[in-house]
Design a protein that fits this description.
homodimer; about 35% helix; about 20% strand
Chain lengths: ~600, ~600
């Protein structure tokens, strides 16, 4: 281990460019839109825990508290940056409802208190500690944003009560929650309060998972689903429900750091390697099947039926960032960037109002519609983003993620400053203000002013970048250019952006002979809206040349090229002819797909050899 | 309509070549192997209808009678050609058990008589009339093979009883059987006996299907499953369970002929067109999904998850042959040939002992094994043939099909002889003996001696054939070369066999840019056993050249060529390079796949453009 410390987004203001616009959209549109839909669907009403008789027509759901908690966390992050009276008022009302409904013992769960009083801590898969964990994260965020302790203290009382039930009394019917999340939340609660018990409880849950007989498999007799198949320290592959997986791996990495636990660190390294080198889509998406919303096995990455949940990509950045805090290696920050610009952003419509839960790499409305018509029930991702889901975890996860995206920029290790991501920002540190100026990802010119006090800067050279220049001498190590500096220093980094064509490992047989197109960190796709239907009949040229064109609505450049298309013929089978016609081809960023209605879309495109 | 009359296989002896060997294998190995496995699994024991208490450990199943009936029908066909003491004895024992167990009323069903006496004719999907139909077909075959009437008479009594229940009393709980089959059986019973009532009953069932409210949907609320969604005369597409579909379409074509029913004929034409031009695999296989073993929708022809049941291809030849009897058009006989050499034969191992129920166009043992290991339950076809299935309809269907393959050779219309298929054979007609000599499908030289009495011969020029020669003047019409003859005439037909590369309609997006290789009527595939794994990384050359090599065990020629293969690289995603290595490539007939253990296999192969 070679630990570094993240510089929190709270110290950073994103000043301009792509991410500043995204944060503005998040605050001005998305946070309120998610509030409105959660309000319409009674998620906020549920917080008062009123008896069912007082609200015929709707009932609370087991994961609603987590939806609210993530929204509260996101609003706290927005308020950290600057005041927003409307969001603050809405959030305080919700917090006040939670505090009023919290029981004497410290318990709060709007589902159990109303629907199943008698079943508290009895049903492993009912997201009870998962909801508690998200509430703790929200409380920590609220405390940091406002300096007020009432929400934090209330959630500490809840954590104390959980400690009592799970450790002191051991009176719950399960040992670890079916949906990990509380583990990493407890570490954050410990960091905010210094109360050792919370760290102890996090360690307890991590030690126990896959390590005790009381926890029954909760999905289809498949212990992998909840990462229960082995003690966590013995695991080497990314398994089961992909969001649950990434949350528990995040907690493992947290605890590896807190406890200098080499065994946990090694398990995390192996799992990260497996997840990213064998089981990750090129968009950074995770989860190859809707069955269990899960990882499957190495190189099984179907495009059309990809589950690829937005939350899994978000959670992957949490895991990768924690790994980065254990060893500065660009393999972690590269994955964060891959998810930032692709698998996460794709979950969010360009107008900020609607969301994808699943982010497939291929959409075929023809197949999808016809399958419905004949009732052959293949599960396929929806084709247009919607404003709220029954299980609406992704929208508020995006709210908190976008608001805290500054977390990914920097970390430090004594006098070394690590620069992981590129966006215009001002960051206040004890050593002075770091200023980054760039038009990235639209060009690769980056100026970083490092204040006096740092003696070394390590700037990431992204994996996609083949050529770069720096204004100062440097030494490469694990994907970072290390530069010795003294006094306030201006680092000029120029990353050469170019269109790159990527192939898949041939074990991903579906993609053999196809390429994905990238420009900088952005992966592109082609859509029927631009290029007509039957996209698999299109071939990129042997050596395609691309023109770039700035797309206002996307905020980045789209790509144009000349391509070939197989000429349609009548009949079902006929003589294979090589006859093709030349066509113009427009590629848009993958993250912008399905913003113009349902449309055929592919990421992996045939290419002439 | 332009009706012709089939010349029955009973008049034909296949004398030599590919099909003579297949018939020998069928008689000497397969008929007995199927008997043995049915015997092991108590299917023959069940015929005595003994109470469950007398045979603890096994129970009869609703479709067992149909398995036995198809085997009996196959044995009768074998006996028609020449004596086989062992098979005759086994068959007579089974018939005697059936006759002994048949009830006073004429009813026989080994499942209902033992398990659900009270539920006779109450459960639409329990294959009751389907079993009855197959028994009637067996009885007709037995009568024709032996001249003995006892089995036929017994099944006539059964048909009379069914008439009483379904027409006279209308006391059954359904109007038409969930699994069509009895309809075409009743036409055969009518042909064998001249009893009008059986034709009337067939007409009744065909008229009622999709036309009455008493018949509830039997699969997933989907009336298409049992072709119930519309009155049959109004149907235009191939729908639902593919075997059920083909059996009812066969009956429709039978009745179109018997009744000169133009509406039925037109429905059959539209359905045939849809089935073969929109919903048929290049192997002649039918059924795109295991869900309901069914057709789905136009151009939905997934290779790896194809259901493609052997019985559906067999039943398609029944339908096509009946269509051929309504209008002589090579589109029907071409489909018969496509199924003969591909989708049907693939269901039968080369050693004659084991069978495929599903005949996918792609096998990937890697995906199949791993999916099982992680319990994500995608349904995939099995990878090696087995000797018996729980639902073992295909093996005895092959026994009867192979034994009667001579049915497909000829038909006549007054003084015109139609020659549909090519195999060495002697056929006795009232006008004399037709002699066909050929080494087809291993070469295209065919000599047909037509006896005096015919004034015209119409020989099919297969759809796959681009060049041919005839020793006599001819006129082409609907795929047949019409030749005027007088006196005994020797027709010399030479079909130019060549390797052809076929493409799919681009709507079958999975196959875009890929080709299937054919030589004569045979479609080829490539297997891991010959070519190593990752077959989708292999590209045929732009203009591939093939060498042929006779394969003794296949009975036909295999193809060899030089091809290119993408070079494997480490990592999950990397720069797309066009680097390929040249490799030798061996193609084997599709029908011979999976005869050397589980192996990756594909029919649709990438091709350089």
């Amino acid at each position: 281990m070679n630990v570094t410390n993240q510089i929190s987004f709270e110290q950073t203001r994103i000043t301009d460019g792509f991410w500043a616009k995204k944060q503005k959209l998040n605050e001005e549109v998305t946070a309120k839109a998610v509030y409105d839909r959660f309000s319409d669907t009674h998620r906020f009403d549920a917080l008062s825990c009123k008896p069912l008789s007082e609200h015929p027509g709707w009932e609370p759901h087991i994961f609603w508290d987590s939806d609210i908690a993530k929204w509260l966390e996101g609003v706290a992050y927005i308020l950290t940056m600057h005041e927003n009276e409307e969001l603050r008022t809405l959030a305080e009302k919700a917090i006040s409802d939670i505090l009023n409904a919290q029981t004497q013992e410290g318990y709060f769960n709007s589902y159990y208190q109303v629907k199943e009083q008698e079943n508290r801590f009895r049903i492993r898969n009912n997201h009870e500690l998962y909801c508690a964990g998200h509430l703790m994260e929200a409380a920590v965020a609220h405390y940091k944003a406002t300096g007020e302790r009432y929400f934090l203290d209330a959630m500490c009382r809840y954590a104390d009560y959980i400690y009592q039930i799970f450790v002191t009394e051991q009176s719950a019917e399960f040992v670890t929650c079916g949906h990990p999340e509380i583990e990493l939340a407890l570490v954050r609660l410990y960091d905010a309060t210094g109360t050792e018990k919370y760290l102890e409880l996090a360690n307890f849950f991590v030690d126990q998972r896959g390590n005790n007989k009381k926890d029954a498999a909760i999905y289809d007799d498949e212990p992998r689903y909840a990462q229960d198949h082995l003690p966590l320290r013995e695991q080497t592959t990314a398994e089961g429900h992909s969001v649950r997986a990434m949350y528990i791996y995040s907690a493992m990495a947290d605890l590896a750091k807190k406890n200098a636990d080499e065994a946990l660190f090694m398990a995390c390294k192996k799992i990260f390697e497996n997840a990213t080198q064998k089981r990750m889509y090129i968009t950074g998406a995770l989860g190859s099947t809707h069955i269990g919303e899960a990882f499957t096995f190495d190189y099984d990455l179907p495009n059309r039926t990809a589950y690829a949940e937005t939350c899994a990509s978000i959670a992957m950045t949490f895991f990768a960032q924690r790994m980065l805090a254990l060893e500065p290696d660009a393999k972690y920050s590269d994955v964060i960037e891959r998810d930032l610009y692709n698998g996460i952003l794709s979950g969010w419509s360009l107008d900020g109002k609607s969301f994808f839960y699943e982010n497939p790499l291929e959409i075929d409305p023809y197949l999808a519609n016809r399958i419905t018509a004949t009732k052959t029930k293949e599960h396929l991702p929806i084709m247009e983003r919607v404003e709220v889901f029954d299980c609406s975890c992704c929208p508020p996860n995006l709210v908190r993620f976008i608001a805290s995206v500054g977390n990914f920029l920097y970390s430090e290790q004594e006098e070394t400053l690590f620069v992981h991501q590129y966006m215009s920002a001002e960051t206040k540190t004890e050593k002075g203000t770091i200023v980054q100026e760039t038009n990235y990802p639209n060009d690769g010119v980056i100026t970083i002013t490092v204040p006096d006090g740092y003696r070394r800067a390590a700037v990431r050279i992204p994996g996609w970048c083949r050529e770069f220049s720096l204004n100062l001498p440097y030494e490469m190590k694990n994907g970072y250019a290390y530069i010795n500096i003294s006094g306030e220093t201006q680092i000029q980094l120029t990353l050469e952006l170019e269109v790159r064509l990527y192939a898949s490992n041939l074990q991903v047989q579906e993609n053999a002979g196809k390429v994905a197109v990238g420009y900088g960190p952005i992966i592109y796709c082609i859509e029927e809206k631009d290029n007509g239907p039957l996209l698999k009949s299109i071939y990129l040229e042997k050596k395609p040349e691309f023109k770039r064109e700035y797309c206002e609505v996307c905020g980045v450049q789209i790509l144009k090229t000349r391509a070939k298309r197989l000429i349609p013929q009548d009949g079902l089978y006929y003589d294979a002819e090589d006859a093709m016609e030349e066509i113009p081809l427009t590629l848009i960023p993958y993250f912008a797909f399905a913003n113009r209605g349902a449309s055929e879309m592919i990421v992996w495109i045939h290419k002439l050899m």
